């Protein structure tokens, strides 16, 4: 079945074009071009393979066939745009209830501390302000250790590695898009607090523990206290002040044995 058919089977026709491509450099790059040409909200590009897949901070996303490479175009008219990466991660986690997923700020979906999926939200602005956000979603569905470079084999996982079973990546796409629409409409309806609460309910249990966040060229070390209403990571510094980290990478500080 096509992705459009799978979505229709979930209860309603998809409201915008769905483009299924064989191989592209990046689904998000294709969709950003479509956005500039006036593509409507909820336009989707999905590909069987990416030759130049990427994650946040320029990290390469390994993109062999049998996995999910999907981008969706959003044109938000609400203020909680900074919550979109967390919202997409929440959608992925809820779309795979068979796995014990955990969300790592700001954009990773983990299983047993290994990366299952990643999110990359890229905004495009014009003279009138924000015009669109392209949310790229990569989920390791059929990935096996031999598909990965050796340094990543201990840090990544997939549906197949966790369950021992195969699954159609388009079925995963339909489930993710369905949950994304639910939470996006919550943001649009002014219920950002529900999104933050649901995200924290699935987050890695780092609250009250020491973490190190790399934001730009600055390292911030302290106790992870929570997520702000805007989706920023809240870290209590050694002097007792509360720092808001809007973007970056964060790791739990492991005590020495």
Helices and strands, with pairings:
Elements: H1 3-8, E1 18-24, H2 27-36, E2 44-50, E3 68-74, H3 84-95, E4 101-104, E5 108-111, E6 114-126, E7 129-139, H4 159-163, H5 169-188, H6 192-201, E8 210-215, E9 218-227, E10 233-236, E11 242-245, E12 249-252
Parallel strand pairs: 1-2
Antiparallel strand pairs: 2-3, 3-7, 4-5, 5-6, 6-7, 8-9, 8-12, 9-10, 10-11
Helix pairs in contact: 3-5, 3-6
Extended strand count: 12
Shape: globular
Strand residue content = 25-35%
Query: CATH fold name of the largest domain, please?
Result: BirA Bifunctional Protein, domain 2
Rg is 18 Å
* Low-pLDDT residue intervals, each spanning 5 or more residues: none
Structure description:
The protein has helices at residues 3-8, 27-36, 84-95, 159-163, 169-188, 192-201, and strands at residues 18-24, 44-50, 68-74, 101-104, 108-111, 114-126, 129-139, 210-215, 218-227, 233-236, 242-245, 249-252. With 257 residues, the chain is α+β, with helices and mostly antiparallel strands. It has two domains: 3-201, BirA Bifunctional Protein, domain 2 (2-Layer Sandwich), CATH 3.30.930; 210-252, Roll (SH3 type barrels), CATH 2.30.30. The chain has a seven-stranded mixed beta sheet with strand order 1-2-3-7-6-5-4, sandwiched between helices. The termini are far apart.
Keywords:
single chain, 257 residues, alpha+beta, BirA Bifunctional Protein, domain 2, SH3 type barrels, seven-stranded mixed sheet, five-stranded antiparallel sheet, 6 helices, 12 strands, 25% helix, 32% strand, globular
